[in-house]
Amino acid sequence: MKHQIKSLEQYHSDYKLSIENPEIFWADIAETFVWKKKWDNVLDWNFEKPDIKWFINGKLNITENCLDRHLEIRGDKPAIIWEPNSSDEPNRIITYKELHEAVCRFSNVLQNNGIVKGDRVCLYMPMVPELTIAVLACARVGAIHSVVFAGFSAQSLSDRINDSDCKILITADGLFRGNKTVNLKEICDEALKTTPSIEKVIVYKRTADTIDMKMGRDVWWHSEMNKAATKFDAIEMDSEDELFILYTSGSTGKPKGVVHTCAGYMVYTYYTFLNVFQYEEDDIFWCTADVGWVTGHSYIIYGPLLNGATTVMFEGIPTYPDAGRFWATIDKLQVSKFYTAPTAIRSLMASGLDFVKPYKLDSLKVLGSVGEPINEEAWFWYHDNIGKERCPIVDTWWQTETGGILISPIAYVTPTKPTFATLPLPGVQPILVNQQGEEIVENGVEGLLCMKFPWPSIIRTTYGDHERCRQAYFSTFKNLYFTGDGCRRDEDGYYRIIGRVDDVMNVSGHRLGTAEVENAINEHPNIIESAVVGYPHDIKGQGIYAFVICDKQVNDISLFTKEVNEVISKIISPIAKPDRIQIVSGLPKTRSGKIMRRILRKIAEGDFSNLGDTSTLLDPTVVDEIIRNRK
Ligand code: 7RM
């Protein structure tokens, strides 16, 4: 296939071209697509503002490239294979023709309900094909989709809806997750009490739970679809028109709405999917992420569909009906490329090999990992027991803000090394800097990971607050994009991501800000102040350790814990519940009142030997007390 890197030599020469002449390199890839009008210039960029534009004045619609472009050659090929939560329920296969028709229909539904180009649409949905249909229909009518993971609370949902003034909310009556049912519409109704911008709610029927439908506001997916025409001419979009917003946690304040635009995101997700996984026409590709995260956007929906691939969408969880579900499903659907997160691997590893043994797994060709650093034990378990020592593991490093994979092996091309994301993909120019922002040029070093040149799917802005985008990513070091990750580069020039160096935690591959969790904890009536840190956790990668100061003495600690968990679940999501709570009488603060999280991190880890410089502490006895009472 054109643009597919087939050897290490080709990787090096393509990489060289992409650095020496990025515009020629990316223009050649962009030629793959259907454009309503070609671009005038390939790239214009400035990291100081930041102001980054790719394929300037190009006109296109990404869904024509995901769908229409394939109809003639692969109209009857499965686009989506949907695997339901229950293995007893039949799966659904949706061909490119069928997906195209459903997207056109739903585009008409959006239009009939008042959506025009530029409007924001919020999606709060189970992992059903209708979620993908709705995402693509938004893109087809020129609406900006904002998918909110259906595990978030009503308050998180309403915050996200309000931040970008969404006009429509698309949801379902409920969802199935393992042996649980969640009434999503009830959560929406709670959120909708404080979302004045929402005019319509479109409800897909999944669980048939009893729900309230508010007259004039709420409509059913199926009745709207039945009324809608099956043709819809895709709206013309500019290359730099916004395609979607996706909220992600940072080190300060509320989650930020990361904005990606049409053309650059399209070109980059297409190219990285094709290369990293060495996509082939008859692949069955399965990314186990939820569409609510960027991994789902880029490698369940856009990357695969732009390539005309068959993508698997899984509604359930890895441990239902038992810890063999992934492996059973791989055999059942004959999955050839499988992409999951270290936290899932570690939890399945802990369930034992009896859940793996019954399955052949001989359809597999490539294994992927994403979301957090993969430890050596998990890497080998995955490699030996799932890949049977014959499938390369692509440890893909990237972020919501990067839109697509930046540092990763190319399957069958890049020699892998356990726990290393290895080398930058073409077009990606990583550099390591020290605290002063000086580049560290040699190998065998550790530093802060930055990028010195834009790739097509780099973040453009944070919705409604451009200054916040500049501040968070482009102001730490002049003329660099700062990732927030610490990184090692070994003697071979291979990159190994160590983890966040800011106040962002990574719990089971989910990004959470310490400030975000603290603000939620502080809503508990008996908590005056709190400090939260991540600490090493065998399964989750990181667990959450909360130090809290209480107003009144706590007598029933288990009741207190339960209440704190309820508060967190209500304000953020159950994924943000602390693994440990320690009641303290004070927090280690500097004279200027800053919490010294570095010390708390050490204590949470259980490492009291080297707390580092404590000379700036206002009251050092606080630390002794915390250590004495540590659980
Ligand atoms: C895709 C995604 C981003 C943060 C990132 C890292 C961590 C992601 C890897 C990784 C080590 C990896 N987007 N991270 N992939 N760390 N190796 N292969 O996860 O925005 O949700 O998170 O995740 O810290 O900055 S994200």
Compact overview of the structure:
The chain has 18 helices and 31 strands. The chain has 631 residues and is α/β, with parallel strands linked by helices.
* SS content category: alpha/beta
Tell me the fraction of residues in β-strands, as a range: 15-25%
- In what order do the strands lie side by side in the largest sheet? 12-11-8-6-7-14-15-24
What would CATH call the architecture of one domain? 3-Layer(aba) Sandwich
Unreliable residue stretches:
none
CATH topology (fold) name of one domain? Rossmann fold
- Give the tally of β-strands: 31
Bound ligands, named by name, code or SMILES: 5'-O-(acetylsulfamoyl)adenosine
As a whole number of angstroms, the C-alpha radius of gyration is: 24 Å
Q: What's the mean pLDDT score?
A: 96
Measured distance between first and last alpha carbons: 57 Å
The level-1 CATH class of one domain:
Alpha Beta
| Helix content, binned percent | 25-40%
Morphology: globular
Biggest sheet details: 8 strands, mixed
Number of helical regions: 18
Describe this structure in words.
With 631 residues, the chain is α/β, with parallel strands linked by helices. It has 18 helices and 31 strands. Strands 12-11-8-6-7-14-15-24 form an eight-stranded mixed β-sheet, sandwiched between helices. The chain has a seven-stranded mixed β-sheet with strand order 5-4-17-16-18-19-20, with helices on both faces. The mean pLDDT is 96. Among the domains are: 67-72 and 94-231, Rossmann fold, CATH 3.40.50.980; 504-629, GMP Synthetase, Chain A, domain 3 (2-Layer Sandwich), CATH 3.30.300. It starts with 7 loop residues before the first helix and ends with a helix. Helix 1 (8-20) packs across helix 2 (22-30) and helix 9 packs across helix 10 (294-306). Helices cover 31% and strands 24% of the residues. The chain is globular. 5'-O-(acetylsulfamoyl)adenosine is lined by residues 248, 293-295, 369-373, 395-400, 421, 483-485, 497, 499-500, 506, 511.
